[in-house]
Amino acid sequence: MNKLILNFKSKESKKIKSPKNFLGGKGANLSEMGRMGLPVPPGFTISTKVCELFYKDKKKLNSKIINSIKKELRIIEKEVGKKFGDLKNPLLLSVRSGARVSMPGMMDTILNLGLNDKTVIALANKTLNTRFAKDSYRRFIQMYGNVVMGVESYHFEELIENYKLTKGVLLDTDLDASDWEGLINDFKKVVIKQKKNFHKMYLSNCLEQ
Predict the structure, then answer these.
(1) What residues pair up with 6 in beta bridges, in sequence order?
(2) CB 7 within 8 A of CB 47
(3) At what angle do helices 153-167 and 130-147 cross, to 10 degrees?
(4) Which of 80, 145, 179, 204 supports an S-S bond with 191, CB 3.0-4.6 Å?
(5) Could you give the CA distance from residue 75 to residue 84 in angstroms, rounded to a whole number?
């Protein structure tokens, strides 16, 4: 099996001897459902082999793997009629991690990948709902900051609670588009600050050794 990235509906998955080892439990199940013709969302699985290669290559992906990901991304774009990073009709992705065995609550997820300062405006115009677009964007920053950048969740939650306290409301749904816009800016500052603190702490530990 030479292919390292498989579309959910790829028939090549039949050739895999140990699907859960190669695709993870979630990926193997989606692949099986896709081949059966069940209505699975458009997507693809990056195999566990890619993870091995990533660490062997000093946490870098070679051009062949990157091109394969881009190819699968174009397939999704064509299927759903949206384009990743487009300023009129942006494609948003859900990125979920998997494992060979079920690990409830242990897998990481990033939603709304594809949102940024420009595409969030496109989403607001497309949905005619600015509050929804801004809330979706802050969720992406929060999840990406936590999962990828290693920023503890409480940094974000405290900001949300402070906004609600200042406004005198109890629920997140009581916050409007301008509130989420403010939180987007505050979330960015938190990520930048915590990232700098991490580098300072890492450098300090290295100098002490």
Answers:
(1) 45
(2) no
(3) 150
(4) 145
(5) 11
Q: Return the residue matching tokens 């939603």.
A: 111
Q: What is the CB neighbour count within 10 angstroms for residue 158? A: 11
**pLDDT tens, residue order, the chain (209 aa):** 468 999 998 888 778 888 888 998 888 989 989 888 898 999 999 999 999 999 999 989 999 999 999 999 999 999 999 999 999 999 999 999 877 666 665 568 899 999 999 999 999 999 999 999 999 999 999 999 999 888 999 999 999 999 999 999 999 999 999 999 999 999 999 999 988 765 554 434 433 44
What the chain holds in terms of domains, given with CATH numbers, is 1-81 (3.30.1490.20), 100-209 (1.20.80.30)
